[in-house]
Design goal:
The protein is built from five helices and no strands. Helix 1 packs antiparallel against helix 4 and helix 2 packs across helix 5.
Length: about 120
């Protein structure tokens, strides 16, 4: 039920998992080029990669990457839901770096497709 969630706690939990996946993957959240490449990959991720990660649990980096991409979706959904009830939530450095990179990549793709962006 909207309004009863603890968005601050949820944000911290998501951020912690993003940081953990970043450690596994060797992500430097201050390296904008690296994080932007990760965001591009997140948006390009295919169902085939998800199936591969599920069928090959030995590849910890692939599993961490798939988990990270899922966390990115949860992160965006949490921000959307909290804004809908008048509560702005955002995490720390990893959250902000990933969110910024995802937003920039989405905007670039809109421009490339000729889709107008919001003012």
């Amino acid at each position: 039920m909207a309004g009863f969630e603890n968005y601050g706690e949820e944000t911290r939990a998501i951020e912690l998992e993003i940081e953990r996946k970043g450690i596994i993957l060797g992500i430097d959240w201050t390296d904008e080029v690296q994080v932007r490449a990760l965001a591009k990959e997140a948006l390009d991720q295919s169902a085939a990669e998800i199936k591969l990660a599920a069928s090959s649990p030995i590849d910890r980096k692939l599993m961490a990457k798939v988990d990270l991409f899922g966390l990115a979706g949860i992160m965006l959904k949490t921000m959307e839901e909290s804004a809908g009830v008048g509560f702005e939530c955002h995490g720390g450095p990893a959250w902000k770096a990933l969110g910024k990179a995802l937003w920039a990549e989405v905007e670039l793709r809109k421009l490339q497709q000729g889709t107008p962006t919001e003012p």
